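Supplementary Note 3. Input sequence used for the single-chain structure prediction.
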Amino acid sequence: MKKIKQHEKDSFWMQQALDLARKGEGYVSPNPMVGCVIVSKDGERIGAGYHQKYGEAHAEVNAVESVKDKKELKDATVYVSLEPCAHFGKTPPCSKMLSELPISRVVVAHKDPNSKVNGAGLSEIRNAGIQVDVGIMQKEAESLNEFFIHHQTFGRPFITLKVAQTADGYTAAPDGDSKWISGKASRKLVHEWRAKYDAVLVGRSTAMVDNPSLTVRHVSGRQPKRIVIDGPYELPRELNLFSDKHEEKTIVATWNKKASESDADPMLKLMKQNYFRGEVIQVSKKDGHTNLQQLFKELGARDITSVLVEGGQQLSTALLKAGLVDKLELFISPKLLGGGTRSILNLGINKMRDITELKEVTWTKAGDDILLSGYL
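The predicted structure, written as discrete structure tokens, is reproduced below.
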């Protein structure tokens, strides 16, 4: 019988930890998704757990608590998809808990980029005399938590731009009607995405023309925050974003009319008190529009780690030109319009050598539509 190599064993158990971690998708942000599997010295899985909800017990704690006979922890190996935390937050540090167990080895997919951890958890466990190995299925683990890692690294949310267009590149007919460019399967997929992202964002034109709710329907999941960019703060209060049961989850991004003053516009404060139970974020103007870079920094400071943009032509173009799009999800429908609104305007690229090329591209079917996914 062929002997299974240690690396293959480690990958087998780490994959189980990653599968467990994904169960927390949409519920643990701004924390990362983490899974943990505990294997006895005899090679049997004796415990497993994952981070289920923000503010509640971490994966390692849930995994240890699931072990029925704690004597089996002697010389066991713990597989965890992210470095155990080393600081007090909503819960005590997991590295301290693990370092006090009679385990012999901890296998970690990758280090935690959080400045409060970033190797400190690994050091504490090693200092307790426990073997620590790092890097098993690192790429897969980092992909799983790309929102968290991006937020920790850059201080702003991971931005995904979703576009649905006809085969000839149009997002709406000449009369402005866009229902429906994409098919039912594509629309259901978008609702699945909404449940996974911290926020969904549109511009004022989309809010006025489509009056979207930006809620999670057709699937079960968490309701994200809803962001609308309304520079002049003049959108009617009757819109769904301001009048439905999720009004408190709506954020209006606008510019400070008194940009020379540090205080918020007094009139804006009054309007907020009288009409709106959500949140208003004021940023500066840039080129006559809402400063998008500043807006995303403000969102990052509020622990919003990911934003799904479902905007129209102008917002999509502005984000691409500003280099703020991290991932593109482009639905291409087998339909022809021959005229109307193009999906993207001029990006200022005049030569082929300057062309924007997507990375890690995938093409998948969504009903009759084709979904092009790629990173910028």
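The chain is about 30% helix and 25% strand. The two ends are 47 Å apart (CA to CA).
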